[in-house]
Amino acid sequence: MPTMNVNLTPEMAQFVSEEIASGDYASASELVRDALRLLKRDRDMEKEKLEILRREISLGIEQAQRGEFSERSIEDIVADVLRDEA
C-alpha cells in the first residue's frame, strides 16, 4: 500500500488522537482511509444529484419548447422536492 505524509493543523492532529484514544480507530491511517471513503461517497452522491438535476432541467426545457407548462408555483414545486428528500 502506498505511503503518504500529510501535514495537519494542531486541531486536526488532536482530533485524530482523540478518535484513536476513543477506540473508534486503531490508527491514524485507518481514520484517514475512512475519512477519504466518506469524502468519495459524498462527492459521488453530489455528482449523481447534479446529473439528475441536469437531466430534469433538460427535460423541462424540452417541455417548455413544446409549449407544455405547469400551473404550479415554484413554492409548490420546492415543497414537493423537499418532501421527497425527507
Topology:
Blueprint: H1 10-22, H2 28-65, H3 74-85
How does this structure look, described?
The protein has 86 residues and is mostly helical. It has one domain (10-85). It is built from three helices and no strands. It is elongated. It starts with 9 loop residues before the first helix and ends with a helix. Belongs to the ParD antitoxin family. This is Type II toxin-antitoxin system ParD family antitoxin. Keywords: Toxin-antitoxin system.
The low-confidence parts are none
How much beta, percentage-wise? Answer: under 5%
Query: What would you call the structural class?
Result: mainly alpha
Give the SSE string: HHH
Largest sheet: none
Treating each run of at least 4 consecutive H or I residues as one helix, how many helices?
3
Summed over residues and divided by their number, the pLDDT gives a mean of 95
Family: Belongs to the ParD antitoxin family.
GO biological process, one term: regulation of DNA-templated transcription
Protein name: Type II toxin-antitoxin system ParD family antitoxin
InterPro entries: ParD, ParD_sf, Ribbon_hlx_hlx
